[in-house]
TrEMBL record:
This is Uncharacterized protein. Residues 16-55 are annotated as: Disordered.
Length: 116
């Protein structure tokens, strides 16, 4: 099986709240800005993952999923496997399918699992 670039396209929709607040509460209605420890603690809670972290993880999972699907299809080689379209589309899917078809014509099969 030929090696190639990871051509997984991942769309990550990252929305912001409609309120447009940034977490600071120094000018609330009727508030003096010096209000107690409970408000800053709630608004300053640490985030567990940023949008960028989530996007990177989804892209990584898509790339690994695509390569696993290619490896599975390459065992026979099945250039028309419906699995191939889970993570690849357009030119990437066409390239993968053509490579698997060429392997089929040449009698090549894959026997090993992909290694990271």
């Amino acid at each position: 099986m030929r090696a190639g670039a990871c051509a997984a396209g991942v769309l990550v929709a990252a929305g912001r709240s409609a309120s447009g607040t940034d977490g600071s509460h120094d000018k609330g209605p009727g508030g003096s800005g010096g209000g107690g420890a409970s408000s800053p603690t709630t608004s300053e809670a640490p985030r567990t993952a940023s949008v960028g972290d989530i996007a990177r993880e989804r892209a990584r999972e898509a790339c690994l999923g695509m390569w696993q699907d290619i490896a599975d299809a390459a065992e026979t080689p099945d250039w028309d496997s419906p699995q191939l379209g889970r993570y690849a589309t357009g030119d990437a899917l066409s390239t993968i399918s053509r490579a698997l078809y060429a392997d089929h014509v040449n009698g090549l099969v894959s026997r090993e699992e992909p290694k990271n």
